[in-house]
Specification:
Layout: H1 2-23, E1 32-33, H2 45-57, E2 61-64, E3 67-70, H3 72-79, H4 81-91, H5 96-107, H6 109-113, H7 119-138, H8 142-158
Antiparallel strand pairs: 1-3, 2-3
Length: about 170
């Protein structure tokens, strides 16, 4: 599971790099980009800043004043997306739903960050509810957690007074 998680992280990073490249990260004459130059919506700027900080930490970007510059590792990651996808699925087929959801979301990274599309809608439209059901219900990472949550809810429900309902809010 640890190897699969590391491979998934590397694939995710590559898919994000590819999505950022499609937004124009490597197209400015001086190589520097900002949230404004990529037209990131105001509502998405905190998420963008967090994403950039993560990519700086992983040496895919460098911080340049108020902006960022891609590194050679960024280019390698963006270029390696198809190969990483194939090898990740070959080596860890149980993570296919996760990889497909990430690929669909990163393919729409520009419209999401610009506020043109809602990320949740992209998730539901990309593979439909069946893919999300696979991810949450059968995924090697999520299914144990969901099983534990279900057991806890069942235990609480068993101790409710007769006739008393239990309401659950999904967040």
């Amino acid at each position: 599971l640890q190897d699969a998680s590391a491979a998934g992280d590397k694939l995710t990073e590559a898919q994000i790099a590819r999505g950022l490249r499609e937004m124009g990260v490597e197209s400015s004459p001086d190589g520097i980009f900002t949230a404004d130059s990529l037209r990131v919506s105001e509502a998405m700027q905190p998420a963008f800043a967090q994403l950039m900080a993560s990519l700086v930490q992983d040496n895919l970007l460098t911080k340049e004043g108020d902006g960022y510059r891609s590194t050679p590792a960024f280019t390698i990651a963006a270029d390696s997306t198809p190969a990483l996808f194939r090898s990740g699925i070959s080596n860890h087929p149980g993570h296919l739903p996760e990889a497909l959801l990430c690929a669909a979301t990163c393919a729409e990274l520009g419209p999401i960050l610009r506020g043109e599309k809602d990320a949740v809608q992209v998730l539901f439209a990309s593979g439909g509810p069946e893919l999300l059901d696979q991810f949450y219900g059968d995924g090697p990472i999520t299914s144990p957690w969901l099983g534990a949550i279900a057991s806890a809810v069942e235990e609480v429900a068993r101790h409710l007074p007769e006739g008393r309902g239990l309401r659950i809010l999904e967040i």
